[in-house]
Design a protein that fits this description.
With 408 residues, the chain is of the alpha/beta class. Helix content is 36%, strand content 14%.
């Protein structure tokens, strides 16, 4: 008799964003005349930058001829893209990496979900609360947790509450943990970490021989000068941190799909008897076994992000979304909402009106203003009473959404 992986049965509801889409579709069906403004999932709305499109098309053009045709590429990514990442993302920040420490992939969602596979099931996990649900759900699926409780917290995970009192930047826990997920600039709260905060985490990871899984998918949106763009700007981080980056939000690749993970050769995990094992070759082994690489035209498109024109055009996209973020943040504050984030990230985290529960506020906004956001509690119990708005909409919609919220 075939057995199911019962760990999947521990998962609470459906994945957050499909659940939101389901509720929107149900509302739209009942109200076909309503024009819904979607500021829920962080999906980009502006088209691909011209330099990216041109390189993408060139890549396809090459594939159309016998000379330029390519079959399987290197699973870890073509050398031209890995080198461009080292040269343009890291060297300007005084971080030296080798190309074989960079693994090109089809997205940070996949990378942050897959990485846990190479670590033992007995590892103790720490996540922020609220948190990007992928980190938790993939560990539940793997069997690294016990059952979930009523509030949605799983046994065996150390939850670090992110609250206004700690500026949504929780300190390392008192007890030792082994695998730590950090995301800065943060999804969903929209705040960035400063250097001092990250130093505490790196120190903690070194003392406890732990590993930090650092999701920096939103680093392009940082505007504060004291917020590191990479965890490797912190001394010692290359021994204890794996970093995830993405072209999705900055260069409009949510549909195109391209991202990368950095696994420095110094990062070690340990056998049961305490022998150190380098993580880079293990991740390489996993990556080559389960992944056949990102397509050549997509990697050409990603590399174009680093051309002079590409850099300028990507900056234009980021600035546009951050202007949306400013409008939302200031517009809501004027309406009397308590708002956070939106300065170093394209997300605004707000307290719901009149202390409503997150899903009640979601329904209220959808039904009365036809505006969709993301209920804070969907990211964890500490998100209850909060709500996330994405700044990735187009300007007209953002302004219309603010007007509608203002009329409530
Ligand atoms: C979000 O809205 O939190 C993101 O779009 C999710 C993702 O990047 O997978």
């Amino acid at each position: 008799m075939i057995k199911i992986n019962e760990h999947y049965l521990k998962l609470k509801a459906g994945y957050l964003f499909p659940e939101i889409a389901r509720r929107c579709a149900a509302f739209q069906e009942g109200h076909p005349e309503a024009s819904i403004i979607r500021l829920g999932i962080g999906d980009v709305t502006l088209p691909l930058p011209g330099a990216v499109v041109e390189a993408f098309q060139d890549g396809v053009g090459e594939m159309a001829g016998a000379k330029g045709f390519r079959g399987y590429g290197p699973e870890q990514g073509y050398g031209f893209l890995r080198q461009a990442i080292v040269d343009h993302e890291y060297r300007p920040r005084n971080v030296e990496l080798d190309c074989d420490e960079v693994f090109v992939s089809d997205g940070s969602k996949c990378d942050t979900g897959n990485i846990q596979e190479i670590f033992g099931l007995e590892n103790r996990l720490a996540v922020c609360d609220p948190v990007y649900p992928v980190y938790v759900d993939t560990n539940v699926m793997a069997g690294r947790t016990g059952p979930g409780d009523e509030s949605g917290r799983y046994q065996g995970i150390v939850y670090l509450a992110c609250t206004p009192e700690n500026n949504f930047r929780p300190a390392p826990p008192q007890k030792p943990v082994d695998l730590i997920y950090l995301c800065y600039p943060n999804n969903p709260t929209g705040v960035a970490a400063d250097k001092a905060h990250l130093c505490k985490w790196v120190e903690y990871a070194r003392e406890n021989r732990a590993i930090i899984l650092y999701d920096a998918a939103y680093e392009a949106f940082i505007t504060s000068s004291d917020a590191p763009h990479s965890i490797y700007e912190i001394p010692g981080a290359k021994e204890v941190a794996i970093e995830f980056r993405s072209y999705s939000k900055s260069a409009g690749f949510t549909g195109v799909r391209c991202a990368f993970a950095v696994v420095p050769k110094q990062v070690k995990a340990y056998t049961a008897s305490g022998e150190p094992v380098a993580v880079n070759p293990i991740w390489n082994r996993r990556h080559c076994t389960k992944f056949n690489g990102v397509s050549y035209p997509v990697q050409r498109a990603a590399a174009a992000v680093y051309s002079e024109a590409g850099k300028q055009q990507v900056r234009g996209l980021v600035d546009y979304y951050m202007e949306n973020a400013r409008l939302i943040r200031e517009g809501l504050a004027e309406l009397g909402y308590t708002v956070y984030g939106g300065v170093d990230a394209p997300y605004i985290w707000l307290k719901t009106a009149k202390g409503m529960a997150s899903w009640a506020f979601f329904d209220h906004l959808l039904e009365t203003a036809h505006v969709v956001g993301t209920p804070g509690v969907g990211f964890g119990p500490a998100g209850e009473g909060f709500f996330r708005l994405s700044a990735f909409g187009d300007r007209e919609n953002v302004q219309a959404a603010l007007e509608r919220i203002g009329r409530l």
